[in-house]
Amino acid sequence: MATGTVQVRFFARYAELAGCETTAVAVAVPATVADVVRQVREAIPSAARFPERPLAAVNMRHVKLDAPVNDGDEVAFLPPVAGG
Amino acid sequence: MTYLTRDPIVVSTLIAEVAAPQCGGTCVFLGTVRDAPRDGGVTGIEYSAYEAMAVAEFDRLLAEARKRWPETRLAVRHRLGLVPTEEASIGIAAAAPHRTAAFEACRYVIEEVKKRLPIWKKELRADGTALWVDPAGRPAVVGPEGTP
Q1: Residue B55, C-beta contacts closer than 8 angstroms, at least 6 positions apart
Q2: How far apart are CA B29 and CA B103, in angstroms?
Q3: Omega into A30 within 30° of 0, i.e. cis?
Q4: Contact B118/A84, CB-based, under 8 Å?
Q5: How far, CA to CA in Å, does B62 sit from each of A51, B3, B56, B110?
Q6: Which of A13, A46, B20, B88 could form a cystine bridge with B9, CB 3.0-4.6 A?
Q7: CB-CB: which of A11, A13, A84 is closest to B118?
Q8: Which of A80, A84, A10, A40 shows the shortest CA–CA distance to B50?
Q9: B117 vs A84: CB contact, 8 Å cut-off?
């Protein structure tokens, strides 16, 4: 199975919790957003404090956790949005 | 189109952007930062965004509104950075041949912004603490150093 690299971005409270705004994780592709969430939890101990099912976006579109993720994709973890 | 700004929102600019001879109704909505005396007082809100996605999401939701109300002209600005109490964090102008479409399109934009825009706010309290705002339920206060 091939391995892909995904760019992960954290925002607002999640960036504070993670202690960083970006990281890169390797996942076996084809993968899902849920796989990326698991990888991030393993790679960044403080990410264990993220919700188990965070809001997420892939390549700047809101997606569900079963959405596919491919090599080179950008996956964003989004705290509950509060615009307006 | 510039949707995001770190400067105060100028309502007359939004109105000028949507003005057209065929429009007989213009609806303007401003969302402003409010104080919360019972929560210890709010002096301002610090807004941050996933900026590239926020722009893309604004493009998408405005396209949806224009499809639904084809004759409506729309302009929107969302502020980022520190917005003091009483100042506007968002301004929306919708102009249409008749008022019903102007009101409906304006309402659609603010409701979709609330649901979808990757923008976050941290309330700055009078006592120096700061609080990430979760519209679904208020989380724990975090201190000035960002410690949970």
Answers
A1: B3, B4
A2: 9
A3: yes
A4: no
A5: 30, 11, 10, 11
A6: B88
A7: A11
A8: A10
A9: yes
